[in-house]
Amino acid sequence: MKFGFSTFFFIQKSINEVIDDIISSGVRTIELSLETPHVQKMDKDFVEQMAALAGDGLEFSIHAPFFEVNLGSHQPEIRQFSRNRVKMAIDMAYAIGANPVVLHPGYTFWMGKIKDVAEKSWKFFIKDMRAILSYARKKGVTLALESIPMHLFFFYDLPEFKELKDVFPDLGMTLDTGHAFLTKIAKKEKKPEEAIISDLKYLGINNITHVHLHNNKGKRDDHLFPDGDMDIKRMLNFLREEGYSGKVIIESYEMEKNGIPSVLEKLRSMIS
């Protein structure tokens, strides 16, 4: 497994300073988050710099924009905006040589309330995903959909990925440990870690394209590491035993709060 950090959780420094700090720590895998406050500085020169670093052996993934983005919107202007934002991420991934591009599913506030409206929103989501996947395919970029622990999203619980995979065979999945844990808690699972592992066995390890690693207390998306109510070590052991060899991106505010060395020390104690 290739452990790395997401730039999204470093908000006090410029994106170039964040990249320098991560590299200086010895970490060779970075997820570029195309969101404020950093995305505005990710210009052509920045992309060329990242491509050069990739040429020197650094590995990148990219998190597509997710603020104000909804591929399931009933408003065509919002969906067009959302498609353009994701395509921007795909273009950057292609230019840098980054894989995969992580994206969030579409959503509707009418989920579970007005059936025909929610179904129409689902159809919009499928239509837009088809267009985006086609675009990514031409660029040689893999898309990895991330589950969101809110029932109004079109990928809420891990088994739901099966239906999406049937529709889009080349769609990848981002396993977000914290999100999966919150969903299992919400569904009253007595052993949430075992429920997650059961789902992953059902889906197959080959469908886990990418991993986001963080923890929480089971009530909100705290993005803790490694402290929290979930047994993260159990998750990592399962992934290792099943032969997962892809990127594992740590997503935690503690990286900036306590420093990268502190987080790396905790990580080493978990995987040693």
Distinctive features:
TIM Barrel; 8 strands; 272 residues; alpha/beta; 8-stranded parallel barrel; globular
Structure description:
It is a single chain. Helices cover 46% and strands 14% of the residues. With 272 residues, it is an alpha/beta fold. The protein has a single domain, classed as Divalent-metal-dependent TIM barrel enzymes (TIM Barrel, Alpha-Beta Barrel). Strands 1-2-3-4-5-6-7-8 form an eight-stranded parallel barrel. α6 crosses α7. It starts with a strand and ends with a helix.
What layout of secondary structure does this protein have?
Elements: E1 2-6, H1 15-24, E2 29-33, H2 44-55, E3 59-63, H3 76-96, E4 101-103, H4 115-139, E5 143-146, H5 161-167, E6 172-176, H6 177-186, H7 192-203, E7 208-213, H8 232-242, E8 247-250, H9 254-258, H10 260-271
Parallel strand pairs: 1-2, 1-8, 2-3, 3-4, 4-5, 5-6, 6-7, 7-8
Helix pairs in contact: 3-4, 6-7
H/E element sequence: EHEHEHEHEHEHHEHEHH
The tally of structural domains comes to 1
Helix- and strand-based class?
Answer: alpha/beta
CATH topology: TIM Barrel
Number of strands: 8
* Lateral strand order in the biggest sheet: 1-2-3-4-5-6-7-8
How far is it from the N-terminal to the C-terminal residue, by CA?
13 Å
Percent range of helical residues = 40-55%
Q: What portion of residues belong to β-strands? A: 5-15%
Poorly predicted regions? none
Number of helices: 10
Rg calc: 18 Å
Q: What's the name of the CATH homologous superfamily?
A: Divalent-metal-dependent TIM barrel enzymes
Mean pLDDT over all positions: 97
CATH architecture grouping: Alpha-Beta Barrel
Gross morphology is globular
CATH class: Alpha Beta
Major β-sheet profile: 8 strands, parallel, barrel
